[in-house]
Amino acid sequence: MAHFVTSKDIPADGEHIDKSKLAKPMMIFGGLAFVGLILSVYLLFFAGSYQEQSPSEAAAFITKPVADAPGGDIRGNYAYSWLFAFAYFVTLSFGGCFWLILHHVSNSGWGVSIRRLMENLATVFPWMAIIAIPFFFPQVQSKLFEWMNIHRETGFNYAAAKDAIGGGIFGSYAKDGLHASHDPHDHLLYVKYFYVNLNWWYVRMALYFVGLGGFVIWLKNKSVKQDTDDNPSAKSTLQLRYWAPAGLIMFGLSISFIAFDLLMALDYTWFSTMWGVCYFAGSVLNSMAVLILVLTWLRSKGYLKTVTSAEHYHIMGKLMFAFIVFWAYVNFSQFFLIWYANITEETRYFLLRNTEGWNVANIILVFGHFAVPFVFMLPHYMKRKPALACIFASYMLILHILDMYIIVIPERAPSLSTMNGFEPTLWFSGAFWGDILAFVTVGSFFMFILLRNLGKQSLYPNRDARILESANVSN
Amino acid sequence: MSTSAKRVYGYLAEYESASALYKAAEKVRDAGFKKWDCYSPFPIHGLDNAMGMKRSILPYLVFCGGTLGLITGFTLAYTTQVVIYPTVVQAKPANIFTTAAFFPILFELTILLSGFTTLFGVLGLMGLPRLNHPLFASKQFKRVTDDAFFIAVEARDPNFNADATRELLEEAGGTNIELVEEED
């Protein structure tokens, strides 16, 4: 056992990362993110699309199909790529929020020395709102969310019939229009109107980022203030613990409903009560993988060596392992009930994702995301040895790409082709490059913000009352 | 009074605190003893390292037990549902893909056999249940469930020596050193 850490070993003002070590990676990621964002704005808003509008329809953001090749809808293709990249990286920051809030709620001592890493990962979440901005624009929404098109069109038509042009912009007339319609799908949207409506959708999207984002910023600021407190006390520790349960509720609501609003809403006729928890499982699992990688990177640069040890890797590895099992459990529960009941409304999701090539991808996911890591992560040395833990953390992050890809991308070709009036298609081959571009762009943005957060203050809360307990943890 | 012959079990030494026990354990470990143990009213973190204990083989037993349960469940489901009596329900396949319906059984059997292996494995490895332990002959040892910390070094350890071992335990801070004898 390593030597017992005492308060003499903890520097008075903590460990600060050397800015020169951050400069190079930050410049690379920042540059990539900058170029990628410019390209993405072009691809999302100005590139070729097969939708033409009359001026009055454009005022109401109504889109109309025009006959041409379905795969050529670059804007539509890229909207899905962007959603996929957003869904991937927002899970990582969401998980950071979860671990941070859980750490306070459970009054944990073991993780105090890595709590600042959780705080830095969690505070990437409010920044992800920048990546979410395109989803607020009807040009992007019309490609992704069919229900919004229906709401806008029925609202617009209903308003036009009532001589109230412009009233349909935010779907104010949509409810009446849907009620008056004789299409059974419109009736579905009429019944769901209390939740699935445009105004409430905008309010919700803002609430996720303002509510949870604001909360984790508060948690971090409170903790950072303790570092330089002239009269060190446990006051802020206790205050954080007192308020954290409220954040846990906010977190649960945010992650479940953002998954409903952005991912489940890709097909408004489909529903699954397991959806939120499935998304949550992937999020929590992979953000722990990110924490393991960040910790190893910092240790390789010579930081955090006094306050972290193999014990921390062991605990983090165990938590990651637990959520590998949890992920499989909830995802299987979702599949199992739908497969067993075999109800038409529910099976659509899995029918599409088990057709042709997607079936192979799904089977790879089952074995790659659960069976293989389950068996290999079982021995204790897989979690305790940083190198091995890192290999598995990276492996899980790669499989998480596949997980998110299977959630978002299979919707793309069938939706866009039918929306534009073509025969349903399963796959647009050229759109794959857009997926890579969006992933690299959002990923670089994510890394840039994470590194920026890391450089701002001490790498661990050096005046937290339990830093020594954490440094000497044993399990 | 018993007239039967007695056999030496080993030395029992008391230590005043958990940290004293921990440090003494390191000394006994470094002296190369194998047949000895620490006794404390509560678990002490890191004591197994201080005692130089190897990791238990129990996890490997449990893994084998769990795998056996999984294979049992799979064989049961596959044999009944595919080989012996294929049943088509709602046009679902009657081949290997039908086993999705039996995942709960595969899961339960895996857990059941892992649980059994854990319980019986732990009892077997610890030599439980047993009716008596030689240390119960010591009066002071009763305090081990209350406020006392002990180290007992068994006489069957090849390094055991009537004088040297006593000296070692004393040097490590042991008090009330007692030669425990068991009735043969």
UniProtKB/TrEMBL annotation, chain A:
Keywords: Membrane, Transmembrane, Transmembrane helix. The chain crosses the membrane at residues 26-47, 82-105, 117-137, 200-219, 240-260, 272-298, 319-340, 360-379, 386-407, 427-451. This is Quinol:cytochrome c oxidoreductase quinone-binding subunit 2. It comes from Persicirhabdus sediminis.
UniProtKB/TrEMBL annotation, chain B:
The chain crosses the membrane at residues 57-80, 100-125. InterPro entries: ActD. Keywords: Membrane, Transmembrane, Transmembrane helix. The keyword Membrane applies. It comes from the Bacteria. This is DUF3341 domain-containing protein. It comes from Persicirhabdus sediminis.
